[in-house]
Design a protein that fits this description.
The complex is a heterodimer of chains A (278) and B (253). With 278 residues, chain A is an alpha+beta fold. Chain A folds into three domains: 74 residues, no CATH class; 51 residues, SH3 type barrels (Roll); 81 residues, Alpha-Beta Plaits. Chain A has eight helices and ten strands. Chain A has a five-stranded antiparallel sheet. Chain B folds into two domains: 55 residues, no CATH class; 176 residues, no CATH class. In chain B, strands 8-13-17-18-20 form a five-stranded mixed sheet, with no helix packed on it. The N and C termini of chain B lie far apart (50 Å). The chains are: A alpha+beta (278), B mainly beta (253). Chains A and B meet through loops of A and strand 11 and strand 12 of B.
Chain lengths: 278, 253
């Protein structure tokens, strides 16, 4: 008993500093309690609040809560060891400036990540395009520092949040409908009114082409070898690509069936009389 | 006629009725261009096939410990070609003009789909669904914040209108204008997912609707809800699902 009391009141040498075993044990206990509390709080937050939050916000809240409590526990444990933080504050100020410069982009990414949670230009599962970076794909993860996409060709890309936040983002799923746009050229000899009627009927017979907003079909320009008709049709965003593929082929087929010619560029060459051999 | 599994089925004209069918023998039902074939495939095993223009489109095997009964009933028009909408927009061919503090009743038609339903005690499962009529969709509101709806063009009528069997259901609507201004109704939007339908032979009915036009805080809107009771009497086709209920038409009516 006496031996145990003597042991915990004795001191050990740690990196040249004499530390009492009792205070060391208390510090370890404080830190261990901090980790335990962090885990309990994380589980509680996830259980009661996390379920109501979007995936990406849940991840950020989870990390902030967990590492924040562990950080505080570490400070408390060090403070119990007699570490004076007043000196650290001054040194920390200078150190902070140095670190700030060194980790400028890291902090920039973190801040951008926080602002992206507020601005919410996209969420996990959204198909997006970042034209400035020539990247398009489906958002798979938004972490504190980066956004990860699965490109449409199946490859994975990680983009720092700072770049994402300051770039133009085109979100394909933000609105419930998108417009399919393409041009059909018909021969000059064809009646444009009949061609527009054929296209209108074809669109009306396609369930995924919305009745409201109404499709727009109009003569856009008089080309070199064709009268160009623009076709604009609204479809649910999930069906944009399949409809884009289907409608062009379908309208071509129905114009063919109606006997309306879709011409290809032709050039009539006149040979001068003088160039002919006698 | 021979279908994909090699069995021969005799598909006859007619017989087009909604109802519940116990599969203790081969059953063939025709609905427009679609033919349903239900048959016993072995001990506790049942087969279901749907042919469109005599081409096999859907085939399922169902295992059931009891003699299988399938309902061929009207269901909400949201299952085909894909479940992308849970509301219906009825666009009136002739708008209804309601004077201040006035009310009226009218009949409309709404789209339906035909569901092949396995009814259990506490819930029902849609085994298959198809549409005899054309499926059209529209946005109620704007593409930015609107609502995708199954679209149907219909005409107001003071008597129960003639409907296309298996494509449409009757619906009686009670209109009320509680405002001090004239209100013009061009369309009605309401939820249909989880709603009950009623049927008798070829005819399908929806519950009566109540449309109350009112003004609050400088905005005028229409509140659409199911009315107490319904005029048509028939068998109930319920999927025993939650129904959203009241819908506020805040983007115009």
């Amino acid at each position: 008993m006496l031996e145990a009391a003597f042991f915990i009141s004795s001191k050990v040498d740690l990196f040249g500093t004499q530390i009492e075993i009792l205070t060391l044990l208390i510090s370890i206990a404080i830190f261990a309690a901090g980790v335990l509390i962090a885990r309990i709080v994380r589980i509680t937050v996830l259980k009661y609040i996390g379920l109501h939050l979007p995936e990406e916000t849940r991840q950020v809240v989870n990390r902030v809560v967990y590492y924040g409590i562990i950080g505080l526990a570490a400070l408390a444990a060090l403070s119990n060891q007699g570490v004076d933080f007043t000196g650290l504050l001054l040194a920390g100020g200078i150190f902070g400036i140095i670190i700030g410069f060194a980790t400028q982009s890291l902090i920039g990414n973190l801040i951008s990540g926080i602002f992206m949670q507020i601005d919410r230009p996209m969420k996990i599962g959204d198909p997006i395009e970042i034209p400035d970076m020539n990247v398009a794909g489906v958002v798979t993860e938004i972490t504190a520092f980066s956004t990860r996409l699965r490109r449409f060709d199946g490859t994975y890309v990680r983009i720092p949040n700072e770049k994402v936040f300051t770039s133009q983002i085109r979100n394909f799923s933000k609105n419930i409908a998108r417009r399919v746009e393409f041009q059909v050229g018909i021969a000059y000899k064809e009646d444009t009114v009949s061609a527009i009627e054929v296209i209108k009927k074809s669109l009306y017979d396609t369930p995924m082409v919305l009745v409201e907003p109404e499709p727009n079909i109009f003569v856009d320009s008089l080309g070199e070898s064709s009268v160009n008709i623009n076709v604009w049709a609204w479809v649910p965003w999930q069906h944009w690509f399949p409809m884009r593929m289907q409608l062009i082929e379908q309208i071509k087929r129905e114009l063919d069936n109606a006997g309306i010619e879709i011409p290809f560029p032709q050039r009539v060459v006149w040979l001068a009389e003088s160039s002919r051999k006698p | 006629m021979t279908v994909k599994d090699g069995t021969t089925k005799n598909i006859e004209e007619g017989f087009d009725h909604f109802g519940e069918y116990t599969i203790d023998k081969n059953i063939d039902k025709r609905f427009g261009n679609d033919t349903l074939i239900m048959f016993k495939a072995g001990q506790n095993k049942y087969g279901y096939q749907r042919l469109h223009d005599q081409q096999l489109l859907v085939e399922k095997f169902i295992v059931s410990e009891e003699t299988l009964t399938l309902g061929v009933v009207p269901v909400a028009p949201i299952y085909t070609p894909e479940m992308i909408a849970s509301h219906v927009m009825l666009k009136l061919t002739t708008p209804l003009v309601l004077e201040p503090k006035s009310s009226t009743d009218a009949y409309l038609t709404m789209p339906i789909e035909i569901g092949i339903v396995r009814a259990m005690e506490d819930h029902s499962e849609v085994i298959d669904a198809f549409s005899v009529g054309k499926q059209l969709y529209a946005i109620y509101g704007t593409p930015e914040e609107g609502l995708l709806c199954r679209y149907h063009l219909t005409r107001l009528s003071s008597e129960p209108p003639k409907i296309s069997p298996y494509e449409e259901a009757f619906v009686r609507v009670h209109f009320f204008n509680y405002t001090d201004k004239i209100a013009t109704v061009n369309k009605i939007v309401f939820p249909v997912k989880g709603a009950d339908f009623y049927y008798s032979d070829k005819d399908a009915y929806f519950s009566d609707l109540e449309i109350i036009i009112q003004s609050k805080l400088l905005s005028t809107f229409a509140e659409v809800d199911l009315s107490e009771g319904h005029e048509f009497v028939g068998r109930k086709a319920s999927l025993k699902q939650d129904y959203e209920g009241k819908f506020v038409m805040e983007w115009g009516f």
